[in-house]
Design goal:
mainly beta, OB fold (Dihydrolipoamide Acetyltransferase, E2P), five-stranded mixed β-barrel, 1 helix, DNA-binding, Primosome_PriB/ssb, Single-stranded DNA-binding protein
């Protein structure tokens, strides 16, 4: 039995800005957003405010449409997906790369705030 290469990731954090919905040249919808993940120590206590990682996420088609419609800056999410490395050359011929998360599942964890009704 052989094991396939694996690049699965689970992130639990908050959006740093509103999601951005775009349409590709071939007509597919893709929504991009960034998730900030606060790190904690082994006891579950948060570390310094500077101990945060930022992950770029792309969500395609219906999943992306839902993210664009229902998420906003500050929304708490759990993202599950695969890592994808994009590579390109600059105009100066330098090699560049960026790793993104391609979401397969996005769980919307924020609670809707219920407005108190005046009596």
């Amino acid at each position: 039995m052989s094991i396939k290469n694996l690049s699965y990731i689970i992130l639990d954090g908050n959006l740093t800005q509103d999601p951005e919905l775009k349409r590709t040249n071939n007509g597919k919808n893709v929504t991009n957003f960034t998730v900030a993940v606060n790190h904690s120590n082994h006891f579950g206590e948060e570390k310094d405010a500077d101990d945060v990682s930022f992950f770029e996420v792309e969500a395609w088609e219906k999943l992306g449409d839902n993210c664009s419609e229902y998420l906003k800056k500050g929304s708490k999410v759990t993202v599950m997906g695969n890592l994808k490395q994009n590579r390109w050359k600059t105009n100066e011929g330098e090699n560049r790369s960026k790793v993104k998360v391609v979401a397969s599942t996005v769980r919307f964890d924020s609670q809707k705030k219920r407005e108190a009704k005046a009596a």
